[in-house]
From TrEMBL:
This is Carbamoyl phosphate synthase small chain. The gene is carA. Its EC number is 6.3.5.5. Belongs to the CarA family. The active site is at residues 254, 348, 350.
Amino acid sequence: MSQPALLVLEDGRSFAGTSYGATGETFGEAVFTTGMTGYQETLTDPSYHRQIVTQTAPHIGNTGVNDEDDESHKIWVAGYIVRDPARVSSNWRATRSLDDQLKSQGIVGISGIDTRALTRHLRERGAMRAGISTSVLDPAELLAKVLEQPAMAGADLAAEVTTNESYVVPAEGEKRFTVVALDLGIKAMTPKRMAERGIEVHVLPATASLEEVLAVNPDGIFMSNGPGDPETTEHPTTLLKELLQRGKPYFGICFGNQVFGRALGLGTFKLKYGHRGINQPVLDRATGKVEITAQNHGFAVDAPLEGTFETPYGPAEVSHVSLNDNVVEGLKLTGHDGRVLAFSVQYHPEAAAGPHDSAYLFDRFVELMEGRA
Ligand SMILES: NC(=O)CC[C@H](N)C(=O)O
C-alpha cells in the first residue's frame, strides 16, 4: 500500500505525494539535477551529502541498481524526489530495484509530486532547505522543523565524507607517476581514470598534513569534488598554497577547483540554484571547443573573466566558462614563461554516466607532470 509523504520547502511551499524508499523524516538543501541517466552515480556521489535531490527526468529507476556503478560505499543524498518511479526495473546488470536500495540504506524519498513545478520554483527562488516526512503530514509542523536546519552556506562537510585511512589505487599497466589525491569526497571513478593513465594514486584523508603529502614523494597533487561551502576549506587551501609554492603540478575537480581558486587568492560565492546535470555546455577558451559536461555544484569561483590576474605563484586566468551563464568553469596557473603549472575545472571529466568530452583533462594532467603542458 502506498503511504502518504510530504515535502516542505523553507519558504513554505509544500507538495503532498507518496512515500518512496524508506519511511521516516529527512532534511537537507533541495536541489534539482537534469541528468536523464546515471541516477546510481548521482545517489552515491559524496558531493550530494546533506542535499535532497529532485530529478527533472520524470521516470527514474528503469535500470535498477547494479553492483558496479556506485561512486562510493553508500548513498549520500539526504532525500530523493522522483515524479514517477519505475515499477519494474529491467537491465542485465541490475541486481535489485532502486526502491529496495533506497529502503535498505534508509534513504527517505517522495514520489508522485509535480517535479516540474518544484524545479521551476527552485529555479526562481533558489536552492533552499527542505524536509520530507512520512510521519509529519502537516505542512506548518514540518516547516517549523525545516527552519531549524542548518543552511548549506557555511557548511564544512569534508570531515563527514573523507576516508579515515589512506589507501593506494595502483597504476594499470606500467607505473609512470605517483599522485596524492586529497579526498574531500572523492568519487571512485576519479582515481580509476588516473590509474588507467599509469598513475599510482595515493588517496589521503582531507586532514592530511604537508609532511604526510610530501612523504609520498608525489609527482603531482590532486584535490577532489566534495560537499559543503568552499569558503570553509581552510586546511586544504593552506596545504595547496604550500604545495604550489614548492612548484608541485596540480589538478583539481569541482571542490578542488574552488580550493585552487581560494589558494590563488580568489573568493567563492553561492549560486542561486547551481549546475547539476550531464548536459552542461562549457567553452574551453584555449581551443574554442565546446564540451558537454557533467556538473554538480552549488558554489562558484569569483574570478576576472577577461585577461590574466597576478597571484603569488605567477599569472593565472579563467580557462573554461559555462555557456549557460558565464560561471567560471576552469582555472589555469601559468609561469612567467607561459608554461602551465596547475589547473582545475568546476565540472566532472571523470563522469561515469558520461558524457566523456572532457576526459582529455586527465591526459593534460599527465602532460603537466611530464613538463609538456
Ligand atoms: N561536486 C562538488 O565538488 C561540489 C563542490 C561544492 N560543494 C559546491 O556545491 O559547489
